[in-house]
Amino acid sequence: MVFQEEQRLHLGAEAEVWSGLWMGRPAVRKLRRPRAWRHPDLDHRLGHRRMMSEARLLVRMHRAGLAVPALFDLDPEQGTMIMEQISGRPLIEVLRDPTLDPAFLRTALESTGAAIRNVHRLAVTHGDLSTNNVLINDQGEAFLIDFGLAVIDYEVERFGIDLHVIDEILGASHPDVEHAIDHLLTGYSHEEERQGPPQEQTGGAVPTASEVLKRLENVRTRVRYHG
Ligand SMILES: Nc1ncnc2c1ncn2[C@@H]1O[C@H](COP(=O)(O)OP(=O)(O)OP(=O)(O)O)[C@@H](O)[C@H]1O
Ligand SMILES: [Mg+2]
Known about the structure:
Layout: E1 3-11, E2 15-22, E3 25-32, H1 40-63, E4 71-75, E5 80-84, E6 89-90, H2 91-95, H3 102-121, E7 124-125, E8 134-136, E9 142-144, E10 151-152, H4 156-173, H5 180-195, H6 209-226
Antiparallel strand pairs: 1-2, 2-3, 3-5, 4-5, 6-8, 7-10, 8-9
The structure holds adenosine-5'-triphosphate and magnesium ion.
């Protein structure tokens, strides 16, 4: 399917991302980049598998109404994926923008927590929850992207790690934003109160919000004692 590219949004170690139009709709194309240090066959297999997995999870979550981009097209052989363009800025930029008022930041952080909880409620753990992988629109609503490392899981550990990763990043990269993690965790648990206990998924019961928050405490303690 033709993608009319407009501009390059991102050039990272793993992926190159362009914005543009797909069937007249604002879209982005994510192109997997070969890793020079890996054997080409292995690289192809790994990249192929990751992109397939990312696409499958995006479809599953988007169908459930989650705040993630819709998948428009996929060509795993070429290593390209075309998806809906989310109009928003990465959370990392939002938190560094001195012109934004604290109420907006709070909304953005609570919305981020709610978005994470909704992903978790489907038994999906993100695996790379950095402030680059959360996009915030003008209303302060959060969208999660970059599910290349996400997996389906039912053990509470990986859910706790997801929260711990973003906790560490908020503490290290945005220490001046007060109570950032508290707002995020408030959003996380309010979303569960709003919707009630998580539904059983195909693989079993998903850890509840309070089980995950308890595990986060446990991970924090382990990290404090063992580095
Ligand atoms: N659906 C989207 N809508 C808007 N912007 C997007 C979208 N997907 C990706 N981007 C932009 O492209 C950037 C990189 O995308 P993504 O996080 O999916 O790649 P990545 O796997 O982190 O790449 P690398 O590991 O090479 O850094 C994002 O941080 C975001 O700025
Ligand atoms: Mg990313």
